[in-house]
Amino acid sequence: MKITVLQGSPHKKGSSNLLAEQFIKGAEEAGHSVTILDTAHMNMHPCIGCDRCGMNGECVHKDDNNIIRDTLLNSDMVVFVTPIYYFGMSAQLKTVVDRFYSYTTRLSGKHLKAALITAAWDANEDVMPYTAEHYKKLCRYMNFEDVGTVLGAGCGTPAMTKDTVHMQKAYELGKKLI
Ligand SMILES: Cc1cc2nc3c(=O)[nH]c(=O)nc-3n(C[C@H](O)[C@H](O)[C@H](O)COP(=O)(O)O)c2cc1C
C-alpha cells in the first residue's frame, strides 16, 4: 500500500513527528511504502473561498498544494499528523485540509484509508475528543476509511513522548496495516 504521511508541526523533531516515526517504522516493516510530506514547511496558502476551482479544478494559488494533491491522488492511505493547538489540529495541517477543496471530488472518490496521530501537552481526557471527532467527520465526508488513531495525550515534548504507551501504539498501528 502507498501511504502518505502529512506532517503538520512546525517542530521537525517534535512530539507528533516522533509518534509518526514509530508508525512509519511499523508500516515499512509490514511492507508498505511511505511518502512523508512536511506540510508545515511547504509553501502553502490558506483557501480564500473564491470558488474559482468549483471544487474540481485549478486553484488560484500557485504553491505546493499541487505536490500534496498529486501525492494523495496516487496513494492508498493518508495519515494526518498534528500537535494539538487549542483542542484542534494545527493551522498548518488545517490549511492542507481546506485546500482539499479544489480536488474534493477526486480525493473522496479514492476511498483512501486514513489514520490520525496527535500530540498534546495535557494528559487529561478532555484534550483529544474535539480533534478526534473532527477527524472522524472528515473521514465520513471524504469517504476515507478510518483505520486507527493514536491520540498522544501527555506528549508535550519528545522527552515526555518517548516514555508513553503512544509510541508502541503508533508502531503497532503501522505494523498491523493490511
Ligand atoms: C499554539 C499552541 C497551542 C497549544 N494548545 C494546546 C492544547 O490545547 N492542549 C494541550 O494539551 N497542549 C497544547 N499545546 C502544546 C502542544 O500540543 C504540545 O507541546 C505538543 O507536544 C507539540 O507537538 P509537536 O512537537 O509535534 O509540535 C499547544 C501548543 C501551542 C504552541
State the gist of this model.
The chain has helices at residues 15-29, 65-72, 91-98, 104-108, 129-142, 158-161, 166-175; strands spanning 2-7, 33-38, 77-83, 113-119, 145-152. With 178 residues, it is of the alpha/beta class. Helix 1 packs parallel to helix 7.
Indicate the low-confidence ranges by residue numbers: none
Sheet of most strands: 5 strands, parallel
Whole-number mean pLDDT: 98
**Multimerization status:** single chain
**What topology, given as strand order, has the largest sheet?**
2-1-3-4-5
Rg, please? 15 Å
Keywords:
single chain; 178 residues; alpha/beta; Rossmann fold; 5-stranded parallel β-sheet; 19% strand; binds flavin mononucleotide
Walkthrough of the structure:
With 178 residues, the chain is of the alpha/beta class. The protein has one domain (2-175): Flavodoxin domain (Rossmann fold, 3-Layer(aba) Sandwich). It is 36% helix and 19% strand. The chain is built from 7 helices and 5 strands; from the N terminus they run E-H-E-H-E-H-H-E-H-E-H-H. The protein has a 5-stranded parallel beta sheet with strand order 2-1-3-4-5, sandwiched between helices. Helix 1 runs parallel beside helix 7 (166-175). The mean pLDDT is 98. The structure holds flavin mononucleotide. Flavin mononucleotide (FMN) is lined by residues 9, 11, 14-17, 83-87, 119-122, 127, 155-156.
